[in-house]
Amino acid sequence: TEGVADSDPEVYASIQDELHRQRDEIELIASENIVSKAVMEAQGTVLTNKYAEGYPGRRYYGGCQHVDVTENLAIERAQELFGCAFANVQPNSGSQANQGVFQALLEPGCTIMGMNLASGGHLTHGAAPNQSGKWFEAVQYGVSPRDNRIDYDQVEALARVHVPKLIIAGGSAIPRVIDFEHMRAIADEIGAYLMVDMAHFAGLVAAGEHPSPFPHAHVVTTTTHKTLRGPRGGMILTNDESIAKKVNSAIFPGIQGGPLMHVIAAKAVAFGEALRPDFKKYIRQVRLNADSLADQLIKGGLDIVTGGTDTHLMLVDLRSKGVTGDRVEKALSRACITTNKNGIPFDPEKPTITSGVRLGTSAGTTRGFGEQEFRDIADWIVEIVDGLATYGEDANDTIESSVREKVSKLCARYPIY
Ligand code: PLP
């Protein structure tokens, strides 16, 4: 009955500090967003007490009649949102959604093919330190040095040589639309499954602002917390009944136990929000803002990988300024602009240093920032990068503190929570 503020002041203080950080900083991390109060409230409910192993109507525990309603709402809304026949809303994360598909369709030692990390792929797509790279023969494709876009000729050539059982399209730092039809044609030629991991651009697909991976993908995975603006979590979608059955058994009892019913409730709420016209407006603004941010950064003399973006995210190539991603991330952070350093294709720097930063407009747009605000943010980023390049860390204080003041004013104009 005691709230966390009274029962655990230490944890409470850390939560309050994080609230203030989110309020006072400009969030440009492309994988983050700001959920509604309704999503957050659903997540902090009594559903966290409930064990519900199994699926609606087929549980291994009693007392599931109400959480069955919750999970069915999440499933039905996901199906409507993405126009597909089956949804598994139980994966605890995007990584577990991917693991679930692997468990459903592959055996250890099978060959899989995904995009390499350096080109924008995700760890779970066959990277060496990840389980997907250890338990499978992982072949990795990349982007073409010509235009930094997916090298479909390479995908095709590698597919013919290695004959993977599963091809993965999608990633964490791909600014451009992927040609799903082309990927499916390559998969069909060798009899492979095509899995699209739309974790980043799922919200854009839901709003009709990005091509859908359906009908091309056999199976689609996603996170629910990026552009889709739901709670942290994952989901698996398909139109194929036999794949759906395998996926269900793979998630439970294959790799998970009791589903996080409170998170599933929050997913249902977020999908409900995404079905409303307001969400389309929001995503359209995310796209407009991304174009404004990219254009203004280019005007300020920064290079953007592929020259722009089709989505909510972009990669800034810092090499022409002679500064690294690591240094820029830290300098922006001192000015209360939050980003992450990110490798760019063919990056000469180590992954802990990098030559790039990744920027996204989903969180800022949720706050209410429009194109002018993102142009201002671009100007501030350019000031800081140029200052860092000219004066170095020790003498960039004046610039960083003047930007910090402007950031503070902007954040105060667009409060959250
Ligand atoms: N897939 C892609 C493309 C991602 O970008 C991410 C997260 O960054 C994931 C999967 C993993 O999601 P999670 O962090 O929820 O495990």
Can you walk me through this structure?
- By secondary structure, the protein is α/β, with parallel strands linked by helices.
- The chain has helices spanning 4-7, 9-24, 37-43, 65-82, 94-105, 131-134, 152-162, 180-190, 202-206, 241-255, 261-274, 277-299, 325-334, 362-367, 371-391, 397-413; strands spanning 26-27, 54-55, 58-59, 86-88, 111-115, 137-141, 166-170, 193-197, 219-223, 234-238, 303-304, 313-317, 337-338, 340-342, 356-360.
- A seven-stranded mixed beta sheet has the order 4-10-9-8-7-5-6, with helices on both faces.
- Strand 5 (111-115), helix 6 (131-134) and strand 6 (137-141) form a beta-alpha-beta unit.
- It is globular, with a radius of gyration of 22 Å.
- The model has no long low-confidence stretch (mean pLDDT 98).
- Pyridoxal-5'-phosphate binds next to helix 5.
- It is found in: Cytoplasm.
Give the topology, please:
Blueprint: H1 4-7, H2 9-24, E1 26-27, H3 37-43, E2 54-55, E3 58-59, H4 65-82, E4 86-88, H5 94-105, E5 111-115, H6 131-134, E6 137-141, H7 152-162, E7 166-170, H8 180-190, E8 193-197, H9 202-206, E9 219-223, E10 234-238, H10 241-255, H11 261-274, H12 277-299, E11 303-304, E12 313-317, H13 325-334, E13 337-338, E14 340-342, E15 356-360, H14 362-367, H15 371-391, H16 397-413
Parallel strand pairs: 1-13, 5-6, 5-7, 7-8, 8-9
Antiparallel strand pairs: 2-3, 4-10, 9-10, 11-12, 12-15, 14-15
Bound molecules: pyridoxal-5'-phosphate.
The site of pyridoxal-5'-phosphate (PLP) has 14 residues, from helix 5.
